[in-house]
Specification:
With 488 residues, this protein is α+β, with helices and mostly antiparallel strands. It contains 13 helices and seven strands. Strand 6 and strand 7 form a beta hairpin.
C-alpha cells in the first residue's frame, strides 16, 4: 500500500499537495492515524515530487512570458519592415517553446520513472527518496505509537474514530454479572481478585494477537478526546496551545480514560487488521463498561475499502524504455499548452494560498494566546479513508472482512473469559451471554453502513469520486473546519 501511494504522488500533483498540506505544513489540527501507511516514506517521496514540479513551473513560467513577448516583438518588427530583428525574435520564441517542452518532458519522464521504481518489488521505499527534516520525521514516526486521538466536533455524531472508514456495526453487548466468586476443586468459593476496566483493557491488548492468530493484528489502547476539550487536558497533551496536541501521551492518562470519563475523554481498545497487501483495513474499537456488579462491552466495527481507481494509473505505465519515452511524449504534447501557460498561475496561486493560510493561522494563534479556549484541535478524517472507494469492495474483500470481524469478536470473548477466570470470577453468566452474542452478531454488509464523515481542508481534494456505500447508507459529507484553519 505504501509503495502504491508513493508511486502515485509522483504522478498526481493534487494528491502530493494534499499529503504535504496534511502532514508537513504548519497548522493547529491533529491528524488521523496512518492506518498501515509508512508516513515517513510517503512524505519523503511527496517532497521529491513537489520539488520537481516547482522547478518545472519556475522554468515554464519564464517561458510562458518570454515566448509570447518574443512572438509579439517578431510581429511588430515584421510590420515595421525589419526582417532581421523579426527573424531573431521569432527564433527566440521557437527556441523558448522547444526548451519549455523539454523541461515539461523531463519532469514528466522523471516522475514516471520514479513511479516505476516503486513497483511491487524493488529497493525499500524509504531508500528511494531523500529524508525530510529530522523534526518532521520524528513526529511522523511517533504516530506508529499513537495512544491519543483528538476528533473534531463535526465528525463526533458520525464517526469519532477518525480515519477508521465506514462503520459496519455498533453494539453494546449484554452485561454480565462479575460479582460472584468462582469455586475451587473442593467446591469452596475463591476470593475475587479486584480489577478495573483498565486492567481488562491491558490484558486484551497484550493477549489478543496471541489468541486470534492473525499476523497483521495490532492491538493498542488509545484515548479518544473531543477536539474542543483538548485545551483542558494539560501540558502532557498540549504543551503549546499554538500547536497540535501530542499523539503519544502518558500511559496513566490512557488508563484513567478506561476507568472513567472526563473532559470528553474515553479510552478504547483498538484492534486493527490489514487485509492482504493492505487493500482493506478493518478496525474494532472496544470499551469495557464496569459498573459493579455488571460488565459489558461497547463495540464499534469499521472498514476502509480498497483504494479508488485513480491509484491504478501506475499499473498502466509502459515498462519498456522506448514505450515509456513515447508514452510520455504523447502525454506532454496533449497537455503542453495548459502546462506551459498555467505555470505562472500555479506559482502565484500556491504562494497566495500559503500567505492566506499563514495570516489566518497567525490570527487564530493570537486569539489562543489571549486565552481563547474553544479551539477545536480534532482531526476531521484520515488520508487512507479519503482515498478509498466502497465500490471497489469486491466479494473476496467482503468475505475476508466478515471473517476478520468474527475472529476478533470471538477473540475478545475468549480473552474476557480467561481474564475473569484468572480473577476467580464465576463465568457461568458470561458463558450464556457469550453464546447469545456469537449467534446474534452479524457482519454481512447488508445493514446500515455509514461512510466517513467528511473530507478536511486538504484531503477533500484527494477523492475526486467520493465513495458510495450500498443503497440506503449515508453518503460522506463535505464540511470543513469552521473559521481559519491551518490544517484540517
Amino acid at each position: 500500500m505504501t509503495r502504491r501511494l508513493c508511486a502515485t504522488v509522483h504522478l498526481d500533483e493534487v494528491l502530493a499537495r494534499a499529503v504535504w498540506g496534511e502532514y508537513v505544513e504548519d497548522g493547529l489540527q491533529a491528524v488521523a492515524l496512518p492506518q498501515g501507511i509508512n508516513l515517513v516514506a510517503l512524505v519523503r517521496h511527496t517532497k521529491q515530487a513537489l520539488a520537481r514540479w516547482k522547478a518545472r513551473d519556475r522554468a515554464l513560467a519564464v517561458a510562458a512570458i518570454l515566448a509570447p513577448a518574443a512572438m509579439a516583438l517578431a510581429l511588430w518588427q515584421i510590420i515595421a519592415g525589419h526582417r532581421g530583428p523579426a527573424a531573431i525574435a521569432a527564433g527566440t520564441a521557437a527556441v523558448t517553446l522547444v526548451a519549455a517542452w523539454w523541461v515539461a518532458f523531463e519532469a514528466e519522464l522523471h516522475g514516471r520513472r520514479a513511479a516505476l521504481r516503486l513497483g511491487r518489488d524493488g529497493p525499500p521505499v524509504m531508500d528511494l527518496a531523500h529524508a525530510v527534516d529530522p523534526e518532521t520525521e520524528k513526529r511522523l514516526l511517533s504516530m506508529k505509537r499513537a495512544n491519543f486521538v483528538a476528533y473534531h466536533a463535526e465528525v463526533e455524531r458520525i464517526n469519532p474514530f477518525v480515519g477508521s472508514g465506514w462503520r459496519i456495526t455498533e453494539a453494546v453487548w449484554p452485561p454480565i454479572d462479575v460479582s460472584r466468586p468462582a469455586k475451587d476443586d473442593q467446591g469452596q468459593e475463591e476470593k475475587i481478585i479486584p480489577f478495573d476496566a483498565a486492567d481488562l483493557h491491558h490484558y486484551l491488548a497484550v493477549e489478543m494477537p496471541k489468541i486470534v492468530g492473525l499476523e497483521t493484528l495490532q492491538a493498542r489502547n488509545r484515548l479518544y478526546v473531543r477536539g474542543l476539550h483538548v485545551s483542558y487536558m494539560g501540558k502532557e497533551v498540549l504543551p503549546d496551545a499554538a500547536h497540535p496536541p501530542k499523539v503519544v501521551v502518558p500511559v496513566q492518562l490512557v488508563k484513567s480514560g478506561a476507568v472513567g470519563t472526563g473532559a470528553g475523554a474515553e479510552t478504547y481498545l483498538c484492534l486493527r487488521m490489514l487485509g492482504p497487501g493492505g487493500r482493506v483495513v478493518v478496525t474494532m474499537h472496544l470499551r469495557a463498561h464496569l459498573l459493579m456488579p455488571r460488565l459489558s462491552w461497547e463495540v464499534a466495527a469499521y472498514v476502509i475499502p480498497p483504494l479508488s481507481e485513480r491509484f491504478d494509473v501506475v499499473e498502466y505505465l509502459p515498462t519498456g524504455p522506448m514505450r515509456l519515452w513515447w508514452n510520455t511524449v504523447n502525454a506532454v504534447n496533449h497537455a503542453f499548452r495548459d502546462t506551459l501557460f498555467g505555470a505562472p498561475g500555479r506559482l502565484v496561486g500556491e504562494g497566495t494560498r500559503l500567505r492566506r493560510q499563514a495570516r489566518a493561522l497567525h490570527q487564530v494563534r493570537k486569539e489562543i494566546r489571549k486565552n481563547r479556549a474553544d479551539w477545536d484541535y480534532g482531526a476531521v478524517n484520515g488520508l487512507r479513508e479519503a482515498i478509498a472507494d466502497w465500490e471497489r469492495m469486491g466479494y473476496a474483500e467482503r468475505r475476508d472482512v466478515s471473517h476478520y470481524f468474527k475472529r476478533l469478536e470471538q477473540g475478545v470473548l475468549l480473552a474476557t473469559g480467561v481474564f475473569l477466570r484468572e480473577h476467580h470470577v464465576d463465568t457461568s453468566d458470561f458463558e450464556d451471554t457469550e453464546k447469545r452474542i456469537v449467534n446474534a452478531q452479524s457482519y454481512t454488509f447488508t445493514g446500515a453502513i455509514t461512510g466517513p464523515a467528511m473530507f478536511g481542508n486538504h484531503l477533500k481534494q484527494v477523492n475526486q469520486n467520493q465513495p458510495t456505500p450500498p443503497p440506503g447508507a449515508q453518503q460522506p459529507g463535505g464540511g470543513q473546519q469552521p473559521g481559519p484553519a491551518g490544517r484540517p
